[in-house]
Design goal:
The strands form three sheets. Strands 2, 3, 4, 5, 10, 14, 15 and 16 form an eight-stranded mixed β-sheet that branches. The longest helix has 16 residues, at about 55-70. It is built from 14 helices and 16 strands. Helix content is about 35%, strand content about 25%. It has a domain at about 305-360. It is an alpha/beta fold.
């Protein structure tokens, strides 16, 4: 039982378990973690829905961006796509299906999925097999460590960084303190403890950020470390990160998010108490994109673009694709497609909350931005 594991972990930690360790345990414990057990997480029967679950157009348009990157690399005979956290495998299926419309690109393509969840790995293999995708050109690994020979192509993710364990902190009258989990009988409670490495008590002061007393927020060193490692592994190509998130100035603005962004999703309901339903509930926080961009640049990557999901998909031609579909789809089916696309684009849906960050190495210099940033590029907002 997850409660027994938590009680033991809290006891071993001396009564206060740092929140990032709590989050790691309830999400990724090999047997009891939310992402590790065999259960529905995505779709109507799960706890949340991602863009690839909503429409194949998402994967179709991403493939067009991959093809442009491949072309800027000089159309090499081998081109690797590495997807981190592939969910049920629907995005991989859509990418393979679209790639087959471009024979030269498809011939160069290999597909690697980084996935620590045995359950998700099984679902991904099932999806790809059912769709007739070439499993002999698909590979599964659990970690970036397995890619020690480097990558030439694209390392990408969709709703991946938001699930990294975070340090949950609060500015108190005594300075920055870390939130930790305690146990009162069967009930989990919150307490305070000193911040732990790699955080420093002056973390925000060093960033030029002043947090008001009482403000809670999150810091994700593990996400930054992952990006740094991915950047070192990328020999040539791009890293593409799609997620809901904010820049540093937006994230830590004193009046905007006084309680931070940490939240849970349980049966399609948002839950504000992260201690509820341990092991049964997804826990996420917004991605801090300035941090990711800085991590990549420190490893020699060039930031190529940053924009909202809406502008990115429109730059890739999603509205024109809708017009094309209107000529071949029944009216009722077309209405459903339009409604789905609007969820991806409209500000009150996913269009403004989700952002796209692209960083590259060794791409041919061109005056024109990548297609996804042809209509809007807000790279300047990443800087404090």
């Amino acid at each position: 039982m997850i409660h027994t594991l938590l009680q033991q972990a809290i006891q071993e930690a001396g009564g206060l378990l740092p929140f990032h360790q709590y989050m790691q345990l309830v999400l990724y414990h090999p047997q009891q973690g939310y992402y590790m057990r065999q259960r529905a997480r995505l779709g109507r029967s799960g706890d949340f829905v991602t863009a690839p679950e909503m429409t194949s157009l998402f994967g179709e348009l991403l493939t067009l961006q991959w093809i442009e990157i491949w072309q800027r690399m000089g159309e090499p005979s081998q081109f690797a796509l590495v997807e981190a956290g592939a969910g049920n495998g629907h995005l991989a299926v859509d990418i393979w299906r679209t790639a087959h419309r471009f024979p030269n690109f498809a011939a160069a393509l290999t597909y690697t999925i980084l996935e620590i969840s045995p359950d998700f790995q099984s679902r991904q293999r099932e999806s790809l097999t059912h769709a007739g995708c070439p499993l002999e050109r698909c590979h599964w690994y659990t970690s970036l460590d397995d890619l020690h020979n480097g990558v030439e192509g694209v390392i990408f993710s969709n709703e991946f960084f938001d699930a990294f364990p975070v340090h949950w902190v609060e500015m108190t009258t005594e300075g920055l303190r870390a939130l930790a989990v305690a146990c009162d009988g069967r009930n989990l409670t919150l307490g305070h403890m000193p911040v732990q490495a790699p955080l420093h008590p002056d973390h925000f002061t060093r960033l030029g950020v002043t947090l008001p007393v009482g403000m809670r927020t999150e810091v994700a060193p593990a996400a930054r470390q992952w990006m740094s490692q991915a950047a070192r592994i990328l020999r040539r190509g791009a890293i593409v990160s799609i997620d809901y998130g904010l820049t540093r100035s937006e994230y830590y603005h004193s009046g905007a998010l006084p309680e931070g962004t940490l939240t849970g999703f349980y049966r399609h309901q948002q839950v504000n108490d992260p201690l509820l339903h341990p092991g049964e509930m997804d826990l996420t926080s917004h991605v801090q994109f300035s941090d990711l961009a800085q991590a990549g640049e420190e490893q020699g990557l060039t930031t190529l673009g940053y924009t909202t999901q809406a502008w990115f998909l429109m730059g890739l031609g999603i509205l024109q694709r809708l017009e094309q579909l209107a000529n071949s789809q029944p009216a009722e089916r077309m209405q459903t497609i339009r409604q789905t696309v609007m969820r991806l684009l409209l500000p009150q849906g996913m269009g403004e909350r989700f952002k796209v960050l692209v960083q590259g190495r060794g791409l041919a210099a061109q005056e024109q931005p990548l297609a996804g940033f042809s209509l809007h590029n807000a790279m300047h907002r990443l800087n404090p």
